[in-house]
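Q: what does this look like with zinc ion bound?
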Amino acid sequence: MGNHRAERRDLYKVAGEPTPVGGARVAGGRRKADRRQPPTGVLRRVPAIPTLIGALAIAAAAGGAIGIGGGALPSTNLQLSSGGSDAFNGTDAFNFTGDDARSRAISRDSSRQAERDAADKTLQAAVDEQSQQRDAALASLAASAQNRADEIAKNLWVLPTVGYHLTARFGQSSGLWAHLHTGLDFAAPTGTPIFAIADGVITFTGYDGSYGNKTVETLADGTEIWYAHQSEIGVTVGQHVIQSAQIGRIGSTGNTTGPHVHIEVRPGGGDPVDPFPAFVEHGVTP
Ligand SMILES: [Zn+2]
């Protein structure tokens, strides 16, 4: 019976032997096998501790400030930091903030200075521009005055009217005149303006027989210019007139066959000369 039990134990033993012995072996083998297995997906994404520490060391060496577990790196790293993270409050935050505020204040000051400089430059540019414009205006005025002075020095004349055609020359004879024609006739519609051919002084205005309404202008050199047959006289004796000033209007008063202005040129107030070459001599061709 005992044998039977033993047998049974043996049987059990035999039957169970592989379990404790082999089981332990198998179990140990299974653990070794587990270690050799590749890490699961989660483990694969978590860096090994030495790797993490190495990364921190590199970052710190590079001047970055890194807090670990709520702690902080030495203040030297804070000074190197360019950030203002809350992680550094309570360490060198005061100096850090002070430096930062000072830095911002300096930045603001230099910004304002830059704005003032820019405003000054803008104002200066405007002043310069106005100065240049004034200089240009003065130069233009000076040039104009110089041109005027040159014209006076050269004693240049202008024509006495516009839109005219010449109808009678100096020296021509006609049954209309008792003598040879003593002037140059510029025919144009009644009312056409008559201009002073040069600067001068008015020395006579009024009706004068066959000349009709007549104006005499005496130039600086004493030459008299007679303007005859006017429909209208626009100046008075003693009046100074400048070249091109309107002194009257064309008409047909006196001895005429139609509206025109009869121009006589009398050097020194003496006998008349041919106006045509006189105009040419003074720069204009009628
Ligand atoms: Zn005439």
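Residues 168, 181, 183, 185, 262 surround zinc ion (CB under 6 Å). The first strand starts at residue 165 and ends at 168.
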